[in-house]
Design goal:
Shape: extended
Radius of gyration: 17 Å
Order of helices and strands: HHH
Strand content: under 5%
Largest sheet: none
Number of helices: 3
Number of strands: 0
Length: 83
């Protein structure tokens, strides 16, 4: 798959302090997470995989909530958030 120049630029910025092996490991982990989530959605995951998916969902929820708060604070500081 071909990606645009701005995607490559952001990828290099995101991985500038990481080795290629760490960046590749992160990509592999994300793909496996997506595969496992697909198995949960289609109903083919076993009980252990469901428990692991639930734990990961809680982690993602916490990360997303923290991100939303930071974005909202940033918008409030800049006066860009609609009231």
């Amino acid at each position: 798959m071909k990606v645009s120049d701005d995607v490559w630029t952001d990828f290099r910025a995101a991985t500038r302090n990481s080795s290629v092996s760490i960046a590749l490991g992160d990509l592999v982990t994300r793909e496996v997470d997506r595969y496992r989530a697909h198995r949960v959605r289609e109903g083919s995951a076993d009980e252990q995989q469901l428990l692991e998916a639930l734990d990961r969902a809680h982690e993602l929820h916490a990360e997303l909530a923290a991100l939303v708060k930071r974005i909202e604070r940033g918008l409030d500081v800049h006066g860009a958030r609609p009231q």
